[in-house]
Amino acid sequence: MLDGCTPWPEEFAERYRSAGYWRDETLGELLGGLARSHPGRTALVAGPERWSYAELDARTDRMAAGLHRIGIGPGDRVVVQLPNIPELVALMFALFRIGAQPVLALPAHRSSEITYFCEFTDAVAYVIPDVHVGFDYRELAAEVTARVPTLKHVLVAGDPGDFAALPLDGDPVDLPRPDPAGVALFLLSGGTTGVPKLVPRAHQEWSYSGRAVAEACDYGEETVHLVSLPLSHNWPLTHGLLATFHAAGTLVLAPGPSPDEAFPLIERERVTETGLIPGAALLWMEAAEWDEYDLSSLRRVTIGGTKLQPEMARRVEPALGCRLQQAFGMAEGLCGFHRWDDPQDVVLVSQGLPVSPADEVRVVDEDDNDVAPGEVGRLLARGPYTVRGYYRAPEHNARTFTADGFYRTGDLVRLLPTGHVIFEGRVKDQINRGAEKIAAEEVENHLLAHPGVREVALVGLPDEVLGERSCACVVPRGTAPTLAELAAFLRDRGVAAFKFPDRLEIVPRLPLTPLGKVSKKTLAGMFH
Ligand code: J2J
């Protein structure tokens, strides 16, 4: 396994291989197999493009050749920041074939995050769109390349300006086979620390996570899955791209989750499945009342990423005319979905059942003792697609993983006797803002650099649409800053806008716990 990554103990690896969870197949080979077994089936629909599996496979090969020609090789890291365009899918598979590793950034990230990803992973290339939602990524790339001199290539999908175009073509070359047990890509962790953590996912285990989701969700060739969240998140990648491809179904990419963007695609492509965060589901339910689009092809909508309240869950099926399923999961691995025959009351109150029979979950108290069945406790997870460590983070790993390899999710849950998981809260210092995760410490560190901020604590407050929104509780130095000033300050520092505080509270001091730590619970209670 790559330096800086934690391997599975051989005993577990052997168990997962012999049970058939891990296959001797790279992600590039998975696509090659589909191109042979289902050449004419539509794999991908995005914008004006409609590619069969054979076409996606051929485009992937040509792109891999083009990237190889400019010198991108096995083990090279490539920071990829593309919106939901078809090139993103071809690029990911091209890099998988080369054995180069995409580091999947979100379109919302800015220079602070991108510079960090490039430096931390020693990236050789950075791939961007030209302009997306009014933002010119070439300007961002100019800033990043000035700060990261080791970056050799900026590749643009679209008009390259001063940079090079993402190579779409090249004469196919023979590439050495990447190790199926090796790292295929890096996902971003929701994070709790000052700097984001990267999750190294290997070909065979990450591929299995998609296969396990496909099985749990009964995907088949008739599945047409619409992804409207940014595809670079683990959830749309596994539930959308991987699960759909494992079933030889069709993946449809929408630019965003608004009904205006998604409903015409559902009607035109006869979409059967899609994943939504609760806030977007709310908009869909409202729009479905008066919108004329035919949504009758939808077999099921899956809601997750942040907690769906049972009162809202109850309204989904009547409003959208299809089944509801909930999903939970994490870039680190463990994910759960409801099954088609789960009873209605279980679907309304729980967030799903882990997808693999080999998933191991424990619910423990703060001393790692199992709580009584049905009680609330901290969720620990281990299994055939849950990583054993973050990339290059030995100290953090020692805290975040138990000695026997369970990941401390930082989530508070209880389990139904059936094993279904109910999310009850969090112990990690993170804000879940419409399923975009914000590590409080990262934002606090930025805000502490503001001359008007002596002390700061970022806390999550409940929000009907987003689930949570962020509130900066600031002890000022001199004249207190305004919310707009803090946002402008963070923008200047190149921080993604979803991390800007939604609210500012000026406080004389930060309340402390008996142990002398800032009590975020007290703060959240004060401004609730
Ligand atoms: C409450 N909190 C949830 C839910 C995730 C499937 C689905 C989601 C993700 C994801 C994913 C939640 N109710 N239904 O990767 O494969 C919170 C938990 C969790 C954190 C992980 C997947 N579903 N969460 O959201 O890495 O706190 O993955 O630990 O972005 O989201 O966030 P992320």
From TrEMBL:
Domain AMP-binding enzyme C-terminal intervals: 442-517
Q: Please list the residue ranges annotated as the AMP-dependent synthetase/ligase domain.
A: 35-391
Q: Which PROSITE patterns match?
A: AMP_BINDING (PS00455)
Provide an example Pfam family for this protein: AMP-binding
Against InterPro entries, the record matches this protein to: AMP-bd_C, AMP-bd_C_sf, AMP-binding_CS, AMP-dep_synth/lig_dom, ATP-dep_AMP-bd_enzyme
Q: Which GO terms describe its molecular function?
A: acid-thiol ligase activity
Keywords for the protein's UniProt record, in alphabetical order: Ligase
In Swiss-Prot or TrEMBL terms, this protein is called 2,3-dihydroxybenzoate-AMP ligase
Q: Lineage in the entry?
A: Bacteria, Bacillati, Actinomycetota, Actinomycetes, Streptosporangiales
